[in-house]
Design goal:
This protein is about 50% helix and about 15% strand. With about 70 residues, it is of the alpha+beta class. The longest helix is centred in the last third of the chain and has 16 residues. It is globular and about 40 Å long. The N and C termini lie far apart (about 40 Å).
Length: about 70
């Protein structure tokens, strides 16, 4: 179950996966590869900064447009 108390400017793993159009495994893979880093939460319920997720979304859109 996701935490209901999330700091402003952060996304849960589920929200991050939805924004990127991938699954939770894909989010974990991005973290493992160093393309995305956790910015809070707990080990089981990490949070990601909105700015980091947005930058990754833009980067993926630019790559797909090329």
């Amino acid at each position: 179950m996701e935490s209901q108390m999330i700091r402003p400017g952060h996304l849960t793993a589920h929200q991050t996966a939805q924004a990127l159009g991938i699954g939770l495994g894909g989010v974990r893979l991005l973290v493992h590869r160093g393309q995305l880093r956790r910015s809070g939460g707990t080990p089981r319920q990490p949070w990601y900064a909105v700015a980091d997720v947005t930058a990754l979304v833009v980067k993926r859109q630019q790559r797909n447009a090329a």
